[in-house]
Amino acid sequence: MLDRSIGEFSRFVVIALGCTILGFTSGNWSLALIAGLAAYLISVLWQQHRFNRWLANGRRGPAPTAFGVWGEIYDDFYRMQRRHRREKQKLHAMLRRVQDSTSALREGIVALENGDHLAWWNPAAGELLGLQTSDAGQSLVNFVRDPGFVSYMHNEDSDSREPLTLPAPGNEALRLQLEVTRYGQDEALVIVRDITRLHNLEQMRRDFVANVSHELRTPLTVIAGYLETLQGSDMAPPAWQRPLAQMEEQAVRMTTLVNDLLLLARLETSERSGGDIPVDVNELMERVAREARSFSGGRHQIEVQCEGHSSIRGDASELHSAFANLVLNAVKYSPADGEIRLRWWQDSRGGHFSVEDQGIGIDPIHIPRLTERFYRVDPGRSRDSGGTGLGLAIVKHVLLRHSGEMSVKSIPAQGSTFILHFPASKVDTKIENNYGEVAGT
């Protein structure tokens, strides 16, 4: 830039000297100098005009030819134009490759702008959601009208939630899984997967487990009845008493397993919501504590701490099952004379129920898999305690139906703390008035 200024200044000086010398020879140096400088100024303005006109026309074609500093400026702009054109071609080629690769995917991809407005989608998404080219710019919820999806899209924390499964728009036989990822300024990417086959297989598994479990109840009832009759009469020889007791124990265990399987199947196949009836937390905890003390037979100290008067809106039997499974697990895996604490408290995030024990504890490596069906941290110890391996799976599904979550804190050989978290929308606080009555808020 400095070299250009020096060069242009040199040209200006040469023109000025030439005009001055020509003026001295002609006898009117001032007029010659003015004419020369005017011609120089007109030349500069003309080249600037040509440059502005070239820019106004969108820089079509090569830059105008010129001399001096303007010629160098034109050359620089021409080189920049060529470089920009090459980069633009590269970007277009990359965009075509991205579009071709996404078009080849079996999963649907939808790009959203301004929150939930359609910006672009691949052919798979158009087929799965029934989108057409003319639908661009419209809201996605106009085409996927499922209430669960509408709530999912309007939830600011949808990035952290699990993918949503729902029927395809206009085709109830097709099952889709949608997952939303937000990025940039109010933009989002929706991944759509066809999981019809997996859904059908899962439904077949659920139906099979439910049907088999239901069919097993009758023969188990008959076996248990005959075993009880044989044990309570003189029909069986004394040598049979021990085998009969073991048979009865296993029959009870199988009955418990069948009941848990049926409960789990019902939780999986029934409506997503867990009911909307207020369940008194204090009464529920006291009931669970009584059952745990009976199951423990006085071997454990079970304490109940309920802060305030609260209720959870949901299904009473399901909530009882979740609370009881946690407490009975604490009894099973705590040594004699161990202390078990049941606590309920509330804060700005909602209500929380915790069960703290001084049992065998759990290695952190096992915690992510605790809610899997039949998963056992120690298979031998679990069978000795009479567990079915379904308790925490039931707790998980109850929480899903009540919009809750579970967290686990545990140290091997020191004990565990299981905490159930319920959102504020599911918890009602009660306040005692001056007459000792309890009123809801």
Automatic annotation (TrEMBL):
One of its GO terms (molecular function) is protein histidine kinase activity. Residues 211-426 form the Histidine kinase domain. The keyword Transcription does not apply. Its main location: membrane. Keywords: ATP-binding, Cell membrane, Kinase, Membrane, Nucleotide-binding, Phosphoprotein, Transferase, Transmembrane, Transmembrane helix, Transport, Two-component regulatory system. PANTHER family: PHOSPHATE REGULON SENSOR PROTEIN PHOR. SUPFAM superfamilies: ATPase domain of HSP90 chaperone/DNA topoisomerase II/histidine kinase, Homodimeric domain of signal transducing histidine kinase. InterPro entries: BphY/WalK/GraS-like, HATPase_C_sf, HATPase_dom, His_kinase_dom, HisK_dim/P_dom, HisK_dim/P_sf, PhoR_N, Sig_transdc_His_kin-like_C. Signal peptide: none annotated. The gene is phoR. It comes from Microbulbifer epialgicus. It is found in: Cell membrane. The chain crosses the membrane at residues 12-42. CDD domains: HisKA (cd00082). It catalyses: ATP + protein L-histidine = ADP + protein N-phospho-L-histidine. Gene3D superfamilies: 1.10.287.130, Histidine kinase-like ATPase, C-terminal domain, PAS domain. This is histidine kinase. Its EC number is 2.7.13.3.
